[in-house]
Amino acid sequence: MQFDLESVRAQFPALSVADNGVRRIYFDNPAGTQVPSTVADAMSDCLLEKNANIGGYFATSVDAGQIVASARVAMADFLNAPSPDEIIFGQNMTTITFHMSRSIGRTLSPGDEIILSRMDHDANVWPWVLLAQDLGLNVKWLSFNKETFEFDPDAVDAMLTDRTRLLCVGGASNLTGTINDVANICAKARDAGAVTYIDAVQSAPHVVTDVQRIGCDFLVCSAYKFFGPHQGILWGRSELLERLEPYKVRPAPDEIPDCFETGTQNHEGVAGVAATVDYFRWIGDTMAQDHAYRWPEFSGRRQALRAAMDYLFEYERSLAERLIDGLTGIDGITVQGITAADAMLRRVPTVSFTHDSVASDAIAEALARQNIFVWSGHNYAVEVAKTLGIYDSGGAVRVGPVHYNSHREVDELLAALAEIVSR
Ligand SMILES: Cc1ncc(COP(=O)(O)O)c(C=O)c1O
To answer: Is residue 284, in this structure, part of any structural domain at all?
Structure first.
């Protein structure tokens, strides 16, 4: 089936914006995506007509309460959570992780071991390193193979012991783009009795995220990376959430999930999250019906969401292939990630590269002058950049297409790049 790019792009007003007559090309998506107008409308409706704290008797408070309740149901559908009461909203992934680390820390003792990954964004690394420093925990590092940009399949086995209490790993790298086999890693951690904390910030925009299939204990993501507002979301297994002691003020609710949500929530952000999930549902219902058969165990929105993610990923794969193909053809460029044509299912379309004589910052700046938006540097993937030996040399240029980008935009980027590095 032909990908209906035109209908998709029509949902995103930002894609039509031009500066001095030059269209913007958004390849900065791994740092934050644009939003469909339905998401902005839902946020505006919340602010203009349903603006109140929740828990009161009056109309706006009841409406705001319904917004939060239906957003929990929407995110439970998106993540295939057993219950909407396992969905916790917070400012962003980083803040939620620092917050949860305090509660998880209450279950740990000096000498306990935690496993952290060198493939991860610092938001799933440093909160745990600081916790380890505070509590006297031992940190073990899961390294990745610099040649394959993947974990060695058995690497985690040798690290698990009867003192391992926690394993934290990402669904996909925000620098190399590698998709990690988190279900396999979680199964091993579970057998060893360790709790798992998955950072799905970079996988959720591209592939189906299913907490039951992954078999994790916690999973966290950020809606602004998947076409929604700046809003963090955590799923936690209810038995664990019930056992953990939340850091909360006394009058705040004692029940999950509210007890883990500090202070007044960003209701307009939460309204936007529900609309974001329904954007994917719209894709599933209108464009991806022929992908639904792959998900016979689901129906309704859960099935439509999964069909949509599959449909979008197929198209994104074609963007990634074209981009990688073009990059590898430019003299002096090294792609810092998986490039093999038969391994495209093991990466998201986020592609980082370095050039052997032009600095990453200089390339990003030159592209910005042509209204092509990319990021450069380590992008907070500190351990990744150090492992690849690019941390001290300015990191990489990161080009992150998503499903609203076109093949033509990829070609324009490649042409601009070839010209920039040949100057
Ligand atoms: C993989 C990954 N994890 C975590 C984060 C942090 O997310 P947030 O900005 O929601 O704290 C990012 C942000 O770029 C990321 O790419």
So the answer is: no
Mutate to test the pocket of ligand 1, among 128, 199, 222 (most ligand atoms within 8 A of CB): 222
Residue 93 beta carbon below 6 angstroms from any ligand 1 atom: yes
Q: Is 220 in the pocket of ligand 1 (CB under 6 A)?
A: no
pLDDT digits (tens, 9 = 90+) for 196-238: 999 999 999 999 999 999 999 999 999 999 999 999 999 999 9
Whether 338 maps to a domain, the answer reads yes
> Which atom of ligand 1 is nearest to 96's Cα?
11
From CA 167, how far away is CA 287, in angstroms rounded? 38
| Residue 170 Cβ contacting ligand 1 at under 6 Å | yes
pLDDT greater than 90 at residue 2: no
* Rounded Cα distance, 263 and 11, in Å: 33
How high is the pLDDT of residue 1?
64
Supply the range of the domain harboring residue 374. 5-36+301-422
Ligand 1 center–CA 378 separation, angstroms = 13
The three-class DSSP label of residue 127 is: helix
- Compute the C-alpha angle 400/388/177, nearest 5°: 25
Residues 20 and 144 in one domain: no
Distance CA 302, CA 292 (A): 10
Atom of ligand 1 nearest to the CA of 123: 4
222 ligand 1 Cβ < 6 A: yes
Is the whole model's pTM more than 0.90, yes or no?
A: yes
What digits encode the pLDDT tens for the residues 341-357?
A: 999 999 999 999 999 99
Could you tell me if 262 and 306 lie in one domain? no
